[in-house]
Amino acid sequence: MKKHIYFLLLLFVAVSCTEDIKFNNPAFQGLKDNVFWRAATYKASRTTTGDIVIEGALGFEKVILRLPYDEGPGKTMVLGIDNVTIASYLNTFPGKSAEFSTGENKGSGQIVITNIGDENTISGTFKFTAINNDATDTENPKVTFTEGVFYKIPITSTLEY
User: Fold this and answer.
1) Quick one: which of 74, 93, 99, 137 has the most CB atoms within 10 Å?
2) Where are the beta strands (DSSP E) in the chain?
3) What pTM was estimated for this model as a whole?
4) Can you tell me the distance from the alpha carbon of 16 to that of 101, in angstroms, rounded to the nearest whole number?
5) 52-72 confidence digits (pLDDT tens)
C-alpha cells in the first residue's frame, strides 16, 4: 500500500510541475508616478512628414511619444526643448479627464531608440515629466514616467498627423 501512495505522490509531483513562461514581446511599459503601468494596446506609425508616433494605451489612459524618424538607434532625444520631440499622457475617463505634455520650455525627459528592426519594429526607452495642459488643475500639475520601455512595437503605414 505504501508503494502505491509513494507512486501517486511521485506522479502528482511530476504532473504538477509545469513551466508557464509568458513573454512580453512586444511591450510598452513604465512607472507612472512610481506605480507600474503596462499598456494593453500599442502601435507605432510613420507620419507623412517622416516622424514616428508611438502609442501605448491602457483603458482610458494613453501615452504618446512623437519623435523625428531621422534619429537613428542610440541617439538620445531630449524632451522639453522643442515641439518636434514630445511626450504626452492622456486620461479620458469621464470626470477625471486630463492631458499632460512636454514641449518647448515645458516638461523634461528623454527618448532613446535602441533598435529599429529589419522586421519594421521599433524599440527604445523613455522617461519624462509632462505638465498638465490645464493650468487651473492644481491637484494634478504634472505626471512622471520613469523606466519606460517600448520593445518591438510594429511600425504601421503612414498616418496623417
Assistant:
1) 99
2) 27-32, 35-38, 41-47, 52-58, 61-67, 76-79, 86-91, 98-101, 108-116, 121-132, 142-159
3) 0.80
4) 49
5) 999 999 999 999 999 986 656
